[in-house]
Request: fold
Amino acid sequence: MENLENSILDELRQQNELLKQKLEDQVIVSRLKLEKVREHNLTIILNDDKFLFALAIFAIIVPPLQFYFVLNTTIYFAIATALFMAYSFFRLIRRHRLMKTLRNMDTDLISYVDKLKLAMRKEYTMRNPEIILLTLWLIWLGIEIYMQTTDQPMEYIIGLSVGCLVGGLIGAAFGFSYLKRARNRLQTIIDQVEEYRELVENDK
Amino acid sequence: MDFDKMVLTYKSTIYQVCYMFAKDNDEAADLFQEVLINLWQGLSSFKGQSSLKTWIWRISLNTCISFDRKKKRGIQTQPLEMDIDLFNDTDAETVQVKMLHDRISKLGVMDRAIVMLWLENLSYDEIGAIVGITAKNVSVKLVRIREQLKKMSN
Reply:
């Protein structure tokens, strides 16, 4: 039995040596390509925050103005949209910074997954109020559109409502399925870390 | 510290980790790029408390464990074209390497990390420092991983 186990490990070692040999023999990535892509990407990353801030300012100002002046919604709705956008971007920038800190953290795997778990838990706690806010905003948007279309034929109103509803439901289904998969993936990693934590606890 | 020099010195190690966590060549390239970005961002905060090799292993493993290919980063970076394709090459050596990949990728992420570090001949203390467990627990885990690999072979 022991021989079989060792033969598996020996085989793995041999295969790993082959891998190392192959990596030694091959370029993997040339210095030229590395320099070119690094320069380009680092410029993007360094301006990452500036880009997000610019996008936030645009989103807080332009859509509310468009709602008010082009779609003739009420001023209250335009203000609510601006506040909603500001809140969404505040959350986005915070999440972005947190992930940036996490990604280059010099810590062992278990502590890293712990920090990731904490960050994700916080994220999920904040998600429910966000969904409620988004739903309220969408209902309000529906009312605003309805108020603009009272002189339109009933078929037009029904068509518009059904279109918005179906579009919204499909979008929400995609969004939730993505979130569920991401959550399951993280949960698998967390469960695997728990096994290791038990070992650490037993050792104390 | 010269970043390019560091990357070129450790590119095999970085690629090895990315390869073991990837499903295809594109994903390996994405992971490689993501690790490089994280190494660059973390370089200024690297205090030298651990060795450079340990730090590179840590960042590479942490990145590969939490990488979400669909999500990636918010702002699109230029893709890094790799000069290697261990997923589609068909020579005898690559077939062996793929067998190694298949076996290791069936393990859980933490076990995968331990076995990779062990294959690199790192000491149990070094493995423990990267994973976050004691050297004694590294040996316990390695015995269990060996059993898992045996079951896979059966």
Remarks:
- The radius of gyration of chain A is 26 Å.
